[in-house]
Amino acid sequence: MLVVDDEPDIRELPELTLVKMGLGVDAVGSIAEAKERLRTTRYQLCLTDMRLVDGEGFELVRHIAGLAGDLPVAVITAHGSAENAVAALKAGAFDYVSKPVGLQQLRTLVKSALSLPERNAATPAGQPLLGDSPPMREVRELIAKLARTQAPVYITGESGSGKELAARLIHLGGVRRDHMFVPVNCGAIPESLMESELFGYRKGAFTGADQDRDGFFQAADGGTLFLDEVAELPLHMQVLLLRAIQEKRVRKVGATQEDPVDVRVISATHQNLATLVETGRFRRDLYYRLNVIELKMPPLRECRQDVKILAEKMLERLSRQTATSPSRLSGPALQELQAYDFPGNVRELENILERAVALSSEEQINLEDLRLHPLIAQEEGEQAQASAARDALEGPLDRPLPAYLDRLEREAILVALAKTRFNRTAAAKLLGVTFRTLRYRMQRLGIHEPPE
């Protein structure tokens, strides 16, 4: 281990701790000395203070990153200095600890660093991220880099583009791979239950709390918490989430003290968080804590050459499920798929192929089995319907206003749901409303999801 701090008394604590863990330690007091040691010695972890006599810890982080090796760097930041912690992670640091350095926190950090997989390690087990297009190759390269850090990751992309799969691959490729990956859809949790679901509660905290219960943070302790549709969090929960991320501690509902948690947070949304920040719907400080590193998942229409690979793998999986020979795409069917824009991305491709396999009477899927033309006709019908609605609004109303508006609202929701294959998150995006608002309006208007 290489410890860098210009104050001998402060340098002594991590040095003694590491020696007690059975590790060899070189301790130096400046960036220059550290660079000299790095030229002659191979280390497994570098622990550096942020402020040094001859510069900032950032300089050492960038220097080590430029060596193109596998050496993880952790920085020691001043207590409560969230800006420095975020800046260090963006510069390429593996993780950070705040002063005063806790011994247990330091031991956990060291053990994590020592368990990092080699940079050229095999792809983690699980569903792969398929595709040979340049955008997908870039995504896989960035996922491999992100897996070797503890930095919070913010994944953007349209609905169905594979955000949760990317988060799982980051988890499986890193030091937390042997612990839980806990996915949470923030838009699906009722606002009144959100705090207790995330942080847990104590017995007697509220009516029905007949025993202590852990939340998602406790379930993900040592692993990764994936907050999908994080834009749906109400403002008061954003405050609590910010504190949990900064302090690495959470307080259960009804508890009097906070408990430490070791969780890596990965968040995702199809909405534009920067726009929500500007309109006051999302906290700026939380945005900067979540968006340390951004991973953008490309839509399928930007990776058309990957459609063939994805379709073949999906058809193989469908054949295993039905214990039949794999279906094949005819030439015209493949061309039609490659020309289609896929507003629902990979999820929509999977739905189209499942339907085509069910409708096809042969092992080969032909153009007519895809039934993409009704989708195009549906879009044209939507435009005609919208034009008719505008014309109707310009003329006199021959029915009560509330009933007329309910009918228009119902039609708009049904059109959006049909276009997104009843994906309510994507439909809410098309309508320009939140997931929670759409769910409420569907209940009020008696719109139910069709049976399978």
Strand content: 5-15%
| Largest sheet: spatial strand order | 2-1-3-6-7
CATH architecture of the largest domain: 3-Layer(aba) Sandwich
CATH evolutionary superfamily of the largest domain: P-loop containing nucleotide triphosphate hydrolases
User: Kindly, what is the distance between the CA atoms of the first and last residues, rounded to a whole number of angstroms?
Assistant: 57 Å
Summed up, the domain count is: 4
Shape: globular
Structural category: alpha/beta
Per CATH, what is the topology of the largest domain? Rossmann fold
Main sheet attributes: strand count, strand direction, barrel closure: 5 strands, parallel
Radius of gyration: 26 Å
CATH level-1 class of the largest domain: Alpha Beta
Tell me how many strands there are. Answer: 16
Poorly predicted residue ranges: 392-399
How much helical structure, as a percent, in the residues?
40-55%
Number of helices: 20
Mean pLDDT: 85
